[in-house]
Protein 1
Amino acid sequence: MGKFIFGVIVGIAVVFAAVYVYFATGMAPVATSAQAVPFEKMLAHKALHAREEKEAPTTVPLTADEATYTAGAQIYKEHCAVCHGLPAQPQSAIAQGMYPKPPKLMEGKGVTDDSPGETYWKVTGGIRMTGMPGFDKTLSTTQRWQVSVMLANADKLPQSVKDSLSGPATPTMPPTNPTK
């Protein structure tokens, strides 16, 4: 029995060593144009969904109404559209160069099948190794909820909100420091 346990420990150590060598020697694909590592997508999605289920809020503190949608649409245009796009607009150069490709949230199903709490969780903390930043330090809690509620209802927005989403995105640039 002792030899068996020793064999299992050595086997596990060899697997960890092989994985380390794979990454440490630069054999792992890291460019956005490279093929995905086997099981990469499946494992990433499993981890993301398991964490969301534990941490995403289940109650929404805002009403899903035109004012919330309008505010959310403006936030979306300023902070999200550069990657996720606007309705009937071509994908930006930034989005074209990302891996994984950012989903087009305003076309097709988007995130309308996600709860606002799930979207809020993603907007707040971001998603590692996807290019999706967390906005917990740059948007207020209310702003994060506004864009999350708007996205959860993107398939049933009033025409006035849809109209506000047409035209070019207006990304917000960080303030410059004139003393540098």
Note: The domain at 72-164 is CATH 1.10.760.10 (Cytochrome Bc1 Complex; Chain D, domain 2).
Protein 2
Amino acid sequence: MGRSAANLDTVLDDLEALVGRLFDFLELVRQELYARLDEAAAGGEAPTVATISGLARVLQGRLALEGTLVAGAGISFAPDALAGSARHMEWWTRPREEAESQPLPVSFDPQSLSFYDYGEAEWYLRARDSGGPSVVGPYVDAFGTDEDVITLSLPCAHGGAFVGVCSLDLRAGELDARVTRALRELDRRAALVNAEGRVIASTDVAHLPGSLLRDLDPARRRGTTTAWSVVLLGVA
């Protein structure tokens, strides 16, 4: 294996480890949710917003640990999964300029101008329909940070029923900066692309983040968790 190929693998392996660690956190949130739903069921009660209120501490603590890389995290519940709430998100954000995380300021009233129909979002549908981990983006987070984000999601099923999706948003700009530093160590121009060939990070001004790389080698290595690839872009 040549030097560039070896380094490409190292960059991808490091990213897979980072994303894997974040999925481990989402699994922790999912298990915390299940424990609270089990407790409600054992008491013969339908789960409510109060049932899952303790999850806020878990989410806020993780946001504090991740600095500015993670823009927000939480659970988006399936319709009527919580008694008395047709829709609900236990979602916390951490704006760059503020030290403390805060609830996502959106409305779940279909008549409101700020109505967030998260049930139609790609990150929600892909996790629900696949039944497994999903990685979506980059895309503009119009209902949260107004930044480009990448969303990691896990579906939640309890008692044989789908109850929602655990997710977190990575700031694509923060990830771009981290990856670009690693890519600059290679001896040729390179880019990180998502499963659709969309550029996430690049050391070539002709292929900026958000652009689409066509004619990618179908045999290129893809990350097992992300389906991302690190590809060379030509002679330096």
Note: The chain has two domains: 11-173, 178-232.
Protein 3
Amino acid sequence: MKKCLLEIINSRRTIRKYKNKKIDREKIKLLLKAARDCQSAHNTQPWEFIVIENKRLIEQIAKLLHGKSKNVHIGFNILLKEASKILMQTPLIIAVYNTKELSEKFSFLGKKYKKLCKLYEIQSIAAAIQNITLTAEILELGLAWLGISVFCEKDINRLIGRKSSLMAILCVGYPSEFPEKPKRKDINKISRFIR
């Protein structure tokens, strides 16, 4: 089961369709441990992960996204509808929150520093999500990272009893699809060497 990191990165795909199969609690804990063990700015670990297995609650969140799709600009409405479809058939979601510990800790320094700390929090949380994503691949789980869910932050927070800043919803399950690898830009087009 153990793979080289580069193989894991190369084989990872966004999975939008899942089998109707419950995920082992031990596998869920491994995903959370991978997130927790991630590097973070000043080791603040500014994240909170809410694991939701309740199908009815997941469907309510899906309906919130679908409802919001009727009130946003073209393009975003399509993304919200697609996210809603994915949520409707996922067995488990992880709502990822920013606890804002770093930005609140240094808010006394003024807006400029608070803004910088918010960026550090976002970077730290994105790294934690990437750890979850790669660990899911190792555990033969599929995952879709739904950033579009922040459009419904207030409603989702009300539904699950949170007050923090929602960063993303991760859909997790055993894959029932294996998409082709999407075309990637040439390395020479995305990089520059300065000697």
Note: The chain has one domain: 13-190.
Protein 4
Amino acid sequence: MKKMKLFLVPLMALVFLSSCVSVNVLADYDKEADFKEYKTYAYYKTGIDRAQISDLDKKRILKAIDIEMASRGFTKSQDPDILVSIFTKEREQVDVYNNNFGFGRFGFGGFGFGGFGFGGFYNPWLYGGGFGPTASTRTEGSLYIDFIDNQSNALVWQGRGVGNLNNTKNVEKKEKRIKEFVSEILNAYPPAVAAN
């Protein structure tokens, strides 16, 4: 039993951490666009100004985009091939876990308060006598990165990343999470068909 417990704790931690880090990415593009022609970029100020996030987070996102664009051979220009814009969405996600594996809401031989309790028996796998549905709230965010052809003013590529935002007061963790979002999204550029 002890060996199983030693195995489950790291496994649960790994699942929890991986669920926090992952960013689900979707990308779409214009099949007519010639992505090999795009070498320079600038930011689409109107689009960036509309993004409903703090100016500090905008700065963090744009800095992360600059790093990723430079790693792909792009340079900033006053007369760019593409304009880069961002858009964000945020929503609260409520997860309800039904853990009715005990002896009732108020426990067996003890007392509890709506999901947490103090039971009259000892079981190393259970927290106490108060069993029932529990809920947790997390913030899920979407970051869109758009590439707009500067000549035609048409959207030619869009990447969207969705994942937990890890709301934190720690600035370093926030910057790291933003870099992960941007990096994962821009890994989908250029489209595989255009890269051949």
Note: The chain has one domain: 24-191.
